[in-house]
Amino acid sequence: MHQRTAGILSVGDELILGQTLDTNSRWLAQRLVDVGIMPLIHVTVPDTLEAQRDTLRSLASRVDVVVCSGGLGPTADDLTREALAGAMGTSLELDPVSLSQVEAWFVSRGRQMAPINRVQAMIPGGARAIPNLNGTAPGIHGAVGGCEVFCLPGPPREMMPMFESHVLPRLRPDPAAAITTRTIHTFGIGESDLAQRLGDLMNRDARPTVGTTASGGVVSIRIRLQGEAASEESARVLHECESRARAAAGVYAFGSGDETLASCIVRLLQETGSTVGTVESCTGGGLGAILTQVAGSSMVYAGGFTTYSNELKTRLAGVPESMFATGGPGAVSGACALALARGGVERLGVHHALAITGVAGPGGGSKEKPVGTVWISRASRDGTSDTRRFLFSGDRAFIRDLAAKSALAMLRLRLVGADAPLLREAERFTP
């Protein structure tokens, strides 16, 4: 019998309380979609027997397969084994093979297994153990009614390889119910404005389904086609929808899939044979850090100056001291941002330089320059420049992150030969 729907269950007080970010659910959902099984529901429950058992029963009545992560450790709050046994209407039994594997894990590391770890070899009667080659917690494969249940350990380095090796081969997706997705990333446009541009593409009865999600200033268009096997017709429908979505997003669309603004910039710089440098004040090196996360960035990113003090703005980037004198424009100004960028081009020997100066907060703001005021400038070796003032809102980390991304967006516009206003842009400086 084919499996078309899935439920994802995450277990742990630390998840309920927000002390740990649940990355397992996202990863599992993506892998299930990849093989053609639609996740219908994600549920997070605390470390209580009743909540886990009742949720397993509820999910099993609604979907074809449940994948659970967490709660398989050796301590008293690890209750997934007991919860599955309760949902299956059976009791726990010692699995000798699992016990040998747990013991061997400790021996291989020159350690003696504590008696408490013996519980990790207990599985519900009628279930099967799933070997764990990366930790002490075997997984469990059981069934609640007609729904198959896979219980996996919480640590991603254990959960992911176990899913790939032992869960994926046991899934039975319907070949005629393929799920195909496309993702288009945008920056510099608000989610509501983007939705308005997309228009009838976002109708809930449209085919394919189109939606938007926003995270860290990036708004992503998500396209999903479900319910038919791969064919020339489905490929045509997806291509047409993706083309219309890109046209609607216009110059704000920068990439797809796993591409980021930084990786987009690195790719464009490589294609144009140009280099970039950074001169940062309020972001404190964050822009350079984002760029250097991309493999191959050393080919196009020369480096940068972190000029937090006015003295270093002058000494490293050549900003005139008069910029900071009484009556001058000051450090947080379009004139200063442009001087920083031009100094970066000259002193770093690059084709383009990005400069950021502003008030990231929480203190330091004024009536004229409130917290969130950030000037960003792009200067290039050909003498062109682009200097903009932004008014960001949020905490210090969010303001700094948006400032760095907005600087990348400004450089991207230059590299693709376009000009457009960016979200939260307040004015432009003309020297």
Distance between the termini: 70 Å
Question: Can you give the helix content as a percent range?
Answer: 25-40%
What's the β-strand tally?
18
Corresponding CATH architecture of the largest domain: Alpha-Beta Complex
Low-confidence segments, ≥5 residues, pLDDT <50?
none
Q: What is the topology, as strand order, of the major beta sheet?
A: 2-1-3-8-7-6
Task: Provide a count of the helices.
Answer: 13
How many domains is the backbone divided into? 3
Level-1 CATH class name of the largest domain = Alpha Beta
Give the biggest beta sheet. Answer: 6 strands, mixed
User: Which radius of gyration do the C-alpha atoms yield?
Assistant: 27 Å
Could you state the CATH homologous superfamily of the largest domain? CinA-like
Overall morphology: elongated
CATH topology name of the largest domain:
Maf protein
Descriptive key words:
single chain, 431 residues, alpha/beta, Molybdenum Cofactor Biosythetic Enzyme, Chain A, Alpha-Beta Plaits, Maf protein, 6-stranded mixed sheet, 18 strands, elongated
Model description:
It is a single chain. The protein is of the alpha/beta class and 431 residues long. The chain has 13 helices and 18 strands. The termini are far apart. The model has no long low-confidence stretch (mean pLDDT 95).
What is shown here, in short?
By secondary structure, the protein is of the alpha/beta class. Helix content is 35%, strand content 25%. β16 and β17 (385-391) form a beta hairpin.
